[in-house]
Predict the structure of Succinate dehydrogenase/fumarate reductase iron-sulfur subunit.
Amino acid sequence: MSSYTAAFRVWRGDADGGALEDFRVEVNEGEVVLDIIHRLQATQASDLAVRWNCKAGKCGSCSAEINGRPRLLCMTRMSVFSREETITVTPLRAFPVVRDLVTDVSFNYAKAQEVPAFVPPPGVAAGDYRMQQIDVERPQEFRKCIECFLCQDTCHVVRDHEENKASFAGPRFLMRIAELDMHPLDAAAGAGVDRKKTAQDEHGLGYCNITKCCTEVCPENIKITDNALIPLKERAADRKYDPLVWLGDKIFRR
Ligand code: SF4
Ligand code: F3S
Ligand code: FES
């Protein structure tokens, strides 16, 4: 078992501003970045704020940026860095800072609320829903999401453009819409909710230019772009160019 001393640079501050602070800290074999943040709290910076819960990559709480890349602190092994390099840990850039490494991610909860919930099929009692595995295989992948919001943080549509936040749901919630649109029992259409149309008109699907940065940072390895966003775009385009839909829209608008 070999230990060494690493150079860490951690952002300290709050909504009024802050700065990077340098530390030298012990690292032991097998540790992850969250272990080092905890050691800093225990030995040098007892008031260092960090959000975490499971330390197992499952709660989605410990999201931050390590050397500028959105990552889970608890799933980033120290062994991926060289012993000589300085490791910089900063809060998620797309969301307002609360303190140190903790950000206010309520943007995401607001976006979640804007997506109409699953609409149960009429005439089927709860508990009597039946689906074939083949029909749920595609949306099932999206259920692995741990809501870490790393994809939301990295997407350039909002990362550098605060003004886009009002009209863009972000990859996580566009994926949610795709999931519901692919759900074999979702009866939203019968309840007057056209998920493909609202994805375009209300949730900013058109802002996504499939850069795939969201997919690259997803700790659950969900193929957000290829399996959710591109199919949703294709379904929305099919809808737009469907002559019956076009005629319906014309009649409805009159
Ligand atoms: Fe995190 Fe992936 Fe879910 Fe995005 S899709 S919130 S990156 S788990
Ligand atoms: Fe953003 Fe992902 Fe699209 S990063 S642009 S939502 S492919
Ligand atoms: Fe739960 Fe990192 S502490 S995902």
